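PROTOCOL LOG
Step 1. Enter all chains and additional molecules of the complex.
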Amino acid sequence: MTISDDQMRALTFLAPGRLAWQAAPRPRLQSPTDAIVRPIAATTCDLDRLIVRGEAPFRGPFAIGHECIAEVAEVGEGVTRFRPGDIVVVHWHISCGHCGHCDDGRPNSCETFQPGAMYGLPGLGDWGGTFSDWLRVIAADTSLTPVPAGLDPVLVASAADNLPFAFEMTVPHLLARPGAPVLVMGGCGSIALYAVMFAMAAGAGSVTYCDTDPARLALAGHYGATLIEGPPPRQLGRFPLVVDASANAQSLLCGIRSVDPEGQVNSVGGHFADVALPLFEMYRRGVHFYTGRGRGGPGVAEPLEWVAKGLVDPRPVTNVVAEFDDAPAVLAEAPLKPVLSRPPIFSA
Ligand SMILES: [Zn+2]
Ligand SMILES: [Zn+2]
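Step 2. Run joint prediction.
Step 3. Record the structure below.
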């Protein structure tokens, strides 16, 4: 494709199983606190896999992707923490950095922009996608996290969303209940596997993993999980902590039935239709139920540090590493965790 100087390539989701490079306006600095970044290691969130497979209610065309490591290319004069050549995690949400929600650590629900504003989804503002050639980052000082020196961007390509989300669903809960056994309902993709990884590293007494997919089961086994293969039964024992990353109503219900009295069920979403919850049963047992998109930016640094220190290794989950140019074909197959990579320019 030919593109002019004021254009760039944006990886565009067209329809289930169909993606293409399309020309889009090249983003420019619009405010002193903006940065322009170039994604150098981009991956799919588990939500993107569902979109590409036609299992999520988002219709193309739109620039897809909200998970990347990027190189800072240009900063406005008001940006103080970053400069060209820095390698950074780009937070998936769009946030101003100074409203009430941003101030109290909830920039994923920033009050300044349209609710839910983020990269890579339609109808939430035109922010572009993280598989594009360039990205404009607003409020750059609070919307980027530095990648520790020497850490391979491919290894932490999911450091904006799926890694910290899995961390958040497991580690703080295990600190509150040291040694607790954990149940992870898999099926959606990488988050369930990262949850197994973090739970084991955080000292869970055991992790039980339920899924139908042999490849994902093997990965969960690699991280030390006890495996339950097949569709979810009605109940799987009793666990103080259950993580639902299944995108499947029966798995979610199995998880809820399998939680201890006053236990915690964390669901990472992927449920797009209403699910009838057994609320009376949950009431009698005292079930703490959380679902949401994750904390975003404030949750990025700690799991990144766990990877940098070698406490966890997300590498086995990444099953495809390819050139950026090959993104349309690679993503069309909806692999478990593809990383599209290219070398930095400014820090090379
Ligand atoms: Zn996501
Ligand atoms: Zn805000």
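Step 4. Note key features.
The domain at 7-158+296-341 is CATH 3.90.180.10 (Quinone Oxidoreductase; Chain A, domain 1).
The mean pLDDT is 97.
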